[in-house]
Structure formats: C-alpha cells, structure tokens
Design a protein that fits this description.
By secondary structure, the protein is α+β, with helices and mostly antiparallel strands. The chain has a domain at 1-25 and 90-167. The protein is built from nine helices and ten strands. It has helices at residues 47-50, 58-69, 72-81, 109-120, 164-171, 186-192, 203-209, 214-224, 233-243; strands at 7-8, 13-19, 30-38, 42-45, 84-95, 98-105, 136-141, 148-153, 180-181, 199-200. The strands form two sheets. Strands 1, 2, 3, 4, 5, 6, 7 and 8 form an eight-stranded mixed sheet that branches. A two-stranded parallel ribbon has the order 9-10. It is globular, with a radius of gyration of 22 Å.
C-alpha cells in the first residue's frame, strides 16, 4: 500500500493532461488527503482531515499538545509534523499524439484552484467529462520556492479517447482515491485496501506504530524539574489521559 508508484509531477515546460472523473467510491473527481510527515521519512495519512472529521487523529492531538507547551522546541516539532493538505486526482498525459497513464496527480493549490475555476465556469463546465471534457495544459517554470504554474484549457471539448473500448481500458486502470479504513491485521489490510490508494489506520495503531506521545511525556517530565510550573502542563496531561 502507498508508495510513489503511479504518481505524476509536471516537468519543466508545458504538459498536456486530461483529468478523469470520479472512480469507484470517489464522491468527486478529486480526493482531499491529509498527510503527516514524521521523522525518519515516515508518513501517515491523517484520519481527521482525510475523512472530513469523521475520524480522530492521534498525530493532530499530539500536535495540539506540542503547541500547548508553548516553547520553541515544541512549536518547531509541531510545525514539522502538522497535517499537510493535498488534493489527489487521476489524470492521463498527452504527448506526441499518445496518451499515457492513468497517473495520480497531486497538484498544488494554484493548479487545483485553476481546475476548479474552469469547472465552475459555464464556458468550460465538467472538464473531466469523458465525452465532452477538455484537455488542459499545465506549464511549470522555475524550481523550489520560485516555481510557478500556468493552467490553460483547450479551446474545444473532445472525447477522452477515440472509442468506448479505449476509454474503458484506460479508466479501468485508474485508482479509486476514496479513503478506506484498514484494521489491525497487516494481512487483512491488503484485501481491505485493494484498489485504493488512500488508506487510514486506526487511532491506536497509529499511536503504537509511530510511538507517539513519548516526546511530549519527556518534555512534561523535564518541566516538572523546573522551578516554575508550566501554565498548561496539567491541561495537556488531562487531555492525554482522556485519550488513553
């Protein structure tokens, strides 16, 4: 599960893409995804953001406790592991008259808002429609923080592919990006997550696998040794006890 296989990032210069409609259990053509980037290059999907508040997230709780400690080290750690919001969608890439993909594309806010703007514009509408959708050119310029994007739709609508059988063959390979909650058994997880790209682990499993809480507990112990009591120390302890 997971990994970078099948993901696409725009190279320098113009790239022509076509956004696919919702696949499987997806509600929209995109899926909102929250991820926490933890130390040692570990990542975990945020249950709270990804499920739109349906599930609780221990990493978000951990971040809240870190910010509550209100010291520079805690705030720095909290900033590093707080949820990063993304928008995932299925696309294909057009190049030299050929179509490759489908891929998972995770555009930044600039590109995502441009695509959403076209969809809300009656002159374009559902650019992801398989029969009357619109190809889009995404042009990337620059590197790092200096990177800029320009998004321009084609003037005319067009079918996704030349025949229904070709459409079915390509769309059939696209990933269902709707989130799914796995359990505590890694072997069963493979069956539960089959066909999905976004999976969420249970609260307690995230706490155990990523050893959350030890850093905050150590910080609280260090504060106990200080002469001045920390103003929110006991409140943090109460919250952590209530979750256990």
């Amino acid at each position: 599960m997971g990994g970078s296989r099948g993901f696409w990032s725009p190279p320098q210069g113009p790239s022509e893409i076509r956004v696919l409609p919702e696949i499987g259990d997806m509600e929209w053509f995109f899926q909102e995804v929250g991820r926490h980037y933890l130390p040692d290059k570990k990542t975990v999907y945020c249950p709270s953001f990804t499920s739109d508040g349906e599930l609780d997230c221990p990493v978000c709780d951990f971040v809240q406790d870190l910010y509550a400690l209100n010291d520079n080290a805690s705030k720095e750690m909290a900033s590093k592991i707080r949820v990063r919001k993304q928008y995932w969608m299925n696309i294909v890439v057009r190049e030299n008259g050929k179509t490759s993909g489908p891929y998972i594309y995770t555009p930044g806010m600039t590109v995502f808002q441009a695509l959403a703007g076209f969809i809300n514009d009656p002159d374009y509408g559902d650019i992801f429609d398989l029969q009357e959708g619109t190809d889009v050119t995404v042009t990337r310029d620059g590197q790092g923080l200096e990177t800029t994007y320009q998004v321009i739709p084609k003037r005319k609508t067009s079918p996704f592919a030349s025949s229904q059988s070709e459409i079915d063959a390509i769309v059939g390979k696209a990933r269902d990006l709707s989130w799914v909650e796995v359990g505590d058994d890694p072997e069963e997880d493979k069956d539960i997550a089959k066909g999905h790209a976004v999976y969420i682990m249970p609260y307690d499993r995230i706490v155990e696998e990523f050893e959350l809480g030890e850093d905050v507990n150590e910080m609280l112990e260090e504060l106990d040794e200080e002469e001045d009591a920390h103003p929110v120390k006991e409140d943090v302890r109460r919250r952590r006890r209530s979750r256990s």
